[in-house]
Design a protein that fits this description.
With about 500 residues, this protein is an alpha+beta fold. The protein folds into five domains: about 1-65, no CATH class; about 75-120; about 135-305, Ribonuclease H-like superfamily/Ribonuclease H (Nucleotidyltransferase, domain 5, 2-Layer Sandwich), CATH 3.30.420; about 320-390, no CATH class; about 395-505, no CATH class. The protein has 19 helices and 14 strands. The chain has helices spanning about 1-10, 15-20, 30-40, 55-65, 75-85, 90-100, 105-120, 180-195, 225-230, 250-260, 270-285, 295-305, 390-395, 400-410, 410-420, 430-440, 445-455, 460-470, 500-505; strands at about 135-150, 155-165, 170-175, 200-205, 210-215, 220, 235-240, 320-325, 330-335, 335-340, 350-355, 360-365, 365-370, 380. Strands 3-2-1-4-7 form a five-stranded mixed beta sheet, with helices on both faces. Strands 8-11-12-13 form a four-stranded antiparallel beta sheet, covered by helices on one side. A three-stranded mixed beta sheet has the order 9-10-14, with no helix packed on it. Helix 1 (about 1-10) crosses helix 3, helix 15 (about 410-420) crosses helix 17 and helix 17 packs across helix 18. The longest helix has 15 residues, at about 180-195. It is elongated and about 160 Å long.
Length: about 500
C-alpha cells in the first residue's frame, strides 16, 4: 500500500501520468485507474486526508474488474490436477486431452491451468543440514570425460568419484572407468588414505555397488561394503530413494568439479587425469573461499582432521562377495576364471569372496575352498582333492606314474611300458594303465614274466600280456624261455617263434 500512497501524494501535487510512470512507481494504465478511483472517493480534493491502508486496500480490491472469459481448459481442471500429481508433463497432458477428451484448445491454456495449480500449492520449505567436525562425509559419482581404456583400447566414459567432508568441504576426487563393487571399495580405501582419517558416517546415494535393495526404512547393504564399513569403523547412511537433496553438499561438489576443473584442461590418459585432479584439489579447490562456509576448505580441514577417526593399524582386507553356482566340472566361475570346489557340492549355490590376492568359497559360513586369485580370463584353478575319486585316479596315473610303477615291477615291464609310449602314431597311455592294472589281478612276478614273453615275441601290447596271463603261459615250465636254440615252445602255444618251431620239427643232421 505504500506504493499506492506515494502515487496519491504525487497526484495531489499535480504530477501527470507519464511523469509518475517514468519514476517507476506504477504504470500509466494503473495510474489512470488510481486517479479515477481517487477522484471518485474525493482523495484528490485540497485539504482531504489520505485514506488508511485498510480503506485503500478495500477500495482497490473493489475496483478490480472480473475476468470476462473462462479458460477453455477449465472443465478439465480436476483431471489436469490428478495428472500433475503423477508427474505428467504439460505437453503430454495436452496431447491426452486432445486424443481422448476431444479438447480443441491451445497448449497455452493448459499451461495457464498448470501454473495456477502450482501457485495454489503451499510452497515447500527446506532447511540446510549442518554437520559437526568429523561427523560425516558425502559420496557421489558424476560423469567424466571420454578416454581410452588401456585394457581393451576402446574409448569409454569415465566416472568422477567425489568424497566431500561435510564440515570442511575438503574433497577427494578420482576418475575411474566403471562402478563395480571392487572399484567402489578401492575408491573408499584411497579416499580415507588421502584424508588420513575416517569420518563417523558416510552418506551415499543408492548405487548397486553399495545398496542391493534401496528403501527409505530398511535398505539392504551390499555384503562387501558392509565389511568395508566394519573394517574402517564408519556407518553407512544411504539417502531415501529419489531424494538427492539429503546429500546436497557432494552434489554441489560434483558440479563444481565438472564446471571448474574439466572444461579448461586436456588429459592424455586416466593417470594424467587423476594426477591433475589431485593437484587441482590441493592448489585451487582447497584454497578457494567456499560459497557457503566463506572459509578455505583446507583451513577448515586442519580443524576437522583431529576429530576424525584414525585409520586402522592394519588396513582391512576388502573383498568382493558374489553368489556362484557349482558346475558339473566341480568349478565355479568368477570374472571369467574358474575355481574348483569339492565335487559333493555340484549344483549348489555358494558364496564366493574375492580379494586382491585370494578367492575363498563358502557354503553358508563353512569354508570349502581357497585359491590364489587368477588375473587372466580363462584361468582354471584346480585342487585335485576337490575332484571325484575316479577323476583323481585318472589324472594321477599319467606317463610318469606309469613308468615309476613299471620300474617297481621289473625291467621287462618297464621296457614294455617305454615301448608303448614310444609309439609315434597312437597315444598308448590307456594301454599302459591297463597293463599295470593287471598286477591287481595277478601278482607282480607273473606280470613281469608275461611282459618278458611279450617282448620276446615282439608283441608289446596290452592284449598280448593279458592273454599270456589268462592262459597261464607265463607259469608253464615247458614254455619258459631258456637257452637259445632249445625247444621251449609247445606246438599248441599261441606265441611261438617260427624259427623255434622249425628247429623243433627238424631231425638232427649227422
Amino acid at each position: 500500500m505504500f506504493q499506492y500512497r506515494q502515487v496519491l501524494v504525487r497526484l495531489r501535487q499535480g504530477d501527470g501520468d507519464r511523469e509518475i510512470a517514468r519514476s517507476g512507481l506504477m504504470g500509466r494504465v494503473k495510474v489512470a485507474r488510481l486517479r479515477d478511483l481517487a477522484a471518485e472517493r474525493g482523495w484528490l480534493a485540497e485539504g482531504a486526508r489520505l485514506p488508511e491502508d485498510a480503506e485503500l486496500a478495500a477500495a482497490i480490491g473493489q475496483a478490480r474488474r472480473a475476468r470476462s472469459t473462462i479458460s477453455s481448459a477449465e472443465p478439465h481442471r480436476v483431471l489436469i490436477e490428478r495428472w500433475r500429481e503423477q508427474g505428467v508433463s504439460g505437453v503430454a497432458i495436452h496431447a491426452a486431452l486432445c486424443r481422448e477428451h476431444g479438447y480443441t484448445g491451445s497448449y497455452s491454456a493448459i499451461h495457464r491451468i498448470i501454473a495456477s495449480i502450482e501457485r495454489a500449492r503451499p510452497p515447500k520449505a527446506t532447511v540446510p543440514l549442518t554437520f559437526a567436525p568429523g561427523e560425516a562425509a558425502q559420496v557421489d559419482f558424476g560423469a567424466g570425460p571420454l578416454l581410452t581404456d588401456p585394457a581393451d583400447g576402446r574409448v569409454k566414459r569415465t566416472w568422477c568419484f567425489v568424497m566431500t567432508l561435510c564440515f570442511s568441504r575438503h574433497q577427494y576426487v578420482e576418475f575411474v572407468f566403471d562402478q563395480k563393487v571392487a572399484t567402489w571399495l578401492g575408491l573408499h580405501r584411497r579416499a580415507f588414505e588421502w584424508l588420513g582419517a575416517v569420518p563417523a558416517r558416510v552418506i551415499i546415494d543408492n548405487p548397486r555397488c553399495a545398496i542391493t535393495r534401496a528403501c527409505s526404512r530398511d535398505p539392504v547393504v551390499q555384503r562387501a561394503y558392509a565389511e568395508c564399513a566394519e573394517g574402517y569403523g564408519f556407518r553407512i547412511d544411504p539417502c531415501p530413494p529419489a531424494d538427492p537433496a539429503k546429500k546436497g553438499i557432494v552434489e554441489a561438489g560434483v558440479k563444481y568439479v565438472k564446471r571448474n576443473f574439466l572444461p579448461t584442461r586436456r588429459f592424455r590418459d586416466l593417470p594424467d587425469l587423476n594426477a591433475q585432479a589431485r593437484e587441482w584439489v590441493l592448489n585451487e579447490a582447497g584454497e578457494r573461499i567456499h560459497g557457503t562456509t566463506r572459509e578455505r576448505p583446507l583451513a577448515r580441514f586442519t580443524l576437522e582432521k583431529p576429530l576424525l577417526r584414525a585409520l586402522p593399524d592394519i588396513a582391512p582386507d576388502l573383498g568382493v562377495w558374489a553368489r556362484v553356482r557349482v558346475h558339473r566340472d566341480c568349478h565355479v566361475q568368477f570374472e571369467k576364471a574358474l575355481y574348483s570346489v569339492p565335487f559333493m557340492l555340484v549344483g549348489r549355490d555358494l558364496w564366493l569372496r574375492a580379494t586382491d590376492t585370494t578367492v575363498t568359497v563358502y557354503e553358508d559360513h563353512r569354508l570349502v575352498a581357497l585359491h590364489l586369485r587368477a588375473r587372466a580370463p580363462g584361468t582354471r584353478r584346480t585342487v585335485n582333492e576337490h575332484l571325484p575319486p575316479e577323476a583323481r585316479a585318472f589324472f594321477a596315473r599319467d606317463r610318469q606314474w606309469c613308468l615309476t610303477q613299471a620300474e617297481r615291477i621289473g625291467p621287462a615291464c618297464a621296457e614294455l611300458i617305454r615301448t608303448l609310449f614310444a609309439d609315434r602314431i597312437l597315444e598308448r597311455l590307456r594301454a599302459a594303465q591297463g597293463v599295470l592294472r593287471l598286477a591287481e589281478q595277478f601278482d607282480a612276478a607273473r606280470l613281469e614274466a608275461a611282459c618278458a614273453r611279450a617282448l620276446a615275441h615282439a608283441s608289446p601290447h596290452y592284449r598280448t600280456v593279458k592273454t599270456i596271463l589268462a592262459r597261464g603261459f607265463d607259469q608253464r615250465a615247458d614254455l619258459r624261455l631258456s637257452e637259445p636254440g632249445t625247444n621251449v615252445y609247445a606246438a599248441e602255444a599261441r606265441f611261438v617263434r617260427a624259427a623255434d618251431m622249425l628247429f623243433a620239427t627238424q631231425e638232427p643232421q649227422s
